[in-house]
Design goal:
The complex is a heterodimer. Chain A has 12 helices and 2 strands. By secondary structure, chain A is mainly α. Chain A folds into 2 domains: 35 residues; 252 residues, no CATH class. Chain A is globular. By secondary structure, chain B is mainly alpha-helical. Chain B has one domain: F1F0 ATP synthase subunit C (F1FO ATP Synthase, Up-down Bundle). In chain B, helix 1 packs antiparallel against helix 3. The radius of gyration of chain B is 17 Å and the shape is elongated. Classes of the chains: A mainly alpha, B mainly alpha. Chains A and B meet through helix 8 and helix 9 of A and helix 3 of B.
């Protein structure tokens, strides 16, 4: 029986999609060969139906230039711009209509609720609802819902620990929440209704949201750095003065390298936010253009590619947040004589301490 | 002129593209040689690709900024 079935399935695979043998009627119609052939035929029917639907939709509701229904398209540019959204967030509810935003401004401070903010709330509601509802009545042997969440959290925790050792376990909650929020935000933009309603837009395709996330990361890892190393230790990573013991030249080089690292600290949130925004927005632009130019099959492939890329972007953002934290809390590498550093730093590091006196006092108080 | 500028800015994606290609090729080779170290290599590859890609994204964002200025 088993042999027969496998042979028939091989035959079914060889005969090709167009003329797959129909399942034998008397066999109960559960053989694997018949099932595969039926699945394939269903897929082909679906493909044909999608193409026909696309053409019918094209004829019934002809495309029009953006914002001007009824007008005919004049060129390929109209098709493309009809599917694009500008990077500037769309203001849905305006609280200060007397003070309008400059057209084309991407980052602005305006009392209003824009579409990314609204969608952010939706995503937050979804995440919180899933997490709260699926962790009610937790049992020792997890049910399916609890199992999903445990799998997600344990995978993220293992990933984090493989990066930074068991010491990073305390940063895993923020890491996991960044990952889940950004993942759902990215994927929300792939839903068909997004972009069709003016209230809905993937939050991470707006540069304001990603800048906000990156600033949270910036504050967090600097706080963790101050907390782990102390004010003097953390600032000592950037304003390196211990090199002067080896001579003036070595001291200047160390100081210069430290200053460059200090400036790189401020590049980190910029690249972090721009990477996420650029990828998600670029993906949406690419999807829109491909959808405008081709028939429905290629956008479907593109959509699955975007599904993967958005996952990778969420992982990259949260992983970089973790790595920055690990870098911030690790001790500076001149660790052969930490006692000397501690003793000598007050005299040598006066200039550095001077500027950071206030920040140092507050961070020292919280320590 | 701004159209040309936007196009030129988007050309900056070429460099990270080459870099990510080299990176992925080298790490695939490394995983092939030493599959046991695959996890660590893959982690480093993704991080390096992210860092290289960030530079390309900067030029892309610059292009978008120019483009929105064109669109008004």
């Amino acid at each position: 029986m088993c042999v027969e079935r496998s042979v028939s399935s091989d035959l079914g695979a060889m005969t090709g999609p167009s003329d797959a043998a129909p399942p034998p009627a008397g066999e109960g119609s559960t053989g694997p060969g018949g099932e595969r052939g039926r699945t394939r035929r269903t897929a082909i029917w679906l493909l044909g139906a999608v193409v026909v639907l696309d053409i019918v939709a094209f004829l019934v509701i002809p495309p029009f230039p953006k914002g001007e229904p009824g007008k005919p398209v004049t060129g390929i540019a109209d098709l493309i711009t009809a599917n694009l959204e500008l990077p500037a967030p769309h203001v849905v509810w305006d609280f200060a209509p007397n003070d309008p935003v400059a057209p084309g401004a991407i980052v602005f401070n305006h009392a209003s609720i824009s579409s990314p903010i609204f969608t952010t709330w939706l995503v937050m509601v979804v995440v919180l609802a899933i997490v709260f509802m699926w962790t009610r009545r937790m049992t020792m042997v997890p049910g399916s819902r609890q199992n999903i969440l445990e799998f997600a959290y344990e995978s993220l925790e293992n990933w984090a620990i493989s990066l930074g050792g068991p010491g990073v376990a305390r940063h895993v909650p923020l890491f996991a929440s960044f990952f889940l929020f950004i993942l759902l935000s990215n994927w929300s933009g792939l839903l068909p209704i997004f972009g069709r309603f003016e209230e809905l837009r993937a939050p991470t395709s707006d540069v304001n949201v990603t800048i906000g996330l990156a600033l949270v990361v910036f504050v967090y890892y600097n706080y963790q750095g101050f907390r782990a190393l102390g004010v003097r230790g953390y600032l000592g990573k950037f304003f390196v003065l211990s090199g002067f013991r080896q001579g003036l030249g070595a001291g200047l080089i160390d100081l210069f390298v430290g200053l460059i690292e200090f400036m790189l600290e401020f590049i980190k949130p910029v690249t972090l936010s721009m990477r996420l925004f650029g990828n998600i927005f670029g993906g949406e632009v690419a999807l829109g253009v491909i959808t405008a130019l081709t028939i429905a099959l290629l956008p479907a492939l593109m959509l699955s590619l975007e599904l993967l890329l958005n996952f990778v972007q969420a992982l990259i953002f949260s992983t970089l947040m973790l790595i920055y934290t690990i870098i911030a809390i690790e001790a500076p590498h001149a660790e052969e004589h930490p006692r000397d550093d501690l003793v000598e730093a007050p005299q040598a590091g006066q200039a550095a301490d001077h500027g950071a006196g206030i920040a140092g006092a507050t961070a020292g108080a919280t320590r | 002129m701004e159209h040309i500028g936007a196009g030129l800015a988007a050309l900056g994606v070429i460099g990270p593209g080459i870099g990510i290609g080299i990176l992925t090729g080298a790490s695939s080779e490394a995983i092939g040689r030493n599959p046991d170290a695959g996890g660590a290599i893959r982690t480093n590859m993704i991080l390096g690709a992210a860092l290289a890609e960030g530079l390309g994204i900067l030029s892309f964002v610059l292009g978008i900024l120019l483009w929105t200025r064109i669109g008004g």
